[in-house]
Design a protein that fits this description.
The protein has 100 residues and is of the alpha+beta class. The protein is 44% helix and 23% strand. The chain is built from three helices and two strands; from the N terminus they run ββααα. The two termini are 14 Å apart. The model has no long low-confidence stretch (mean pLDDT 90).
Length: 100
């Protein structure tokens, strides 16, 4: 897999009382094919397809936040545990590239 940068736009809309309201949006990027990862994550035994999608997004977002804020004390204890968990998941799922 090449390391071509992919760009995503995340837009969350809240449905409340029959009305739709945008509550947040942001750009997100990287070289991972998030849709392909979500498709492969179905093999991890989630109860529903949407849980595999949520899992992949959560992992990618958390990885990105920790990496970009590695000096933040909030992550001091959690970052090594997250990294270990990420490696377990990567061993089962792969990420579709040769990144670390």
């Amino acid at each position: 897999m090449d390391k071509e940068k992919k760009a995503y736009f995340v837009n969350m809309i809240e449905a409340k009382d029959g009305k739709m309201a945008e509550v947040l949006n942001f750009n997100f990027g990287g070289h991972h094919d998030i849709a392909a990862m979500a498709d492969r994550a179905k093999s991890l035994g989630f109860a529903k397809d949407k849980h595999a999608k949520e899992f992949v997004l959560a992992m990618r977002f958390m990885h990105h936040v920790i990496k970009k804020n590695s000096d933040n004390p909030l992550f001091a204890e959690f970052a090594p545990q997250f990294e270990a968990f990420k490696q377990i998941v990567k061993g089962k799922l792969g990420c579709g590239c040769d990144c670390k």
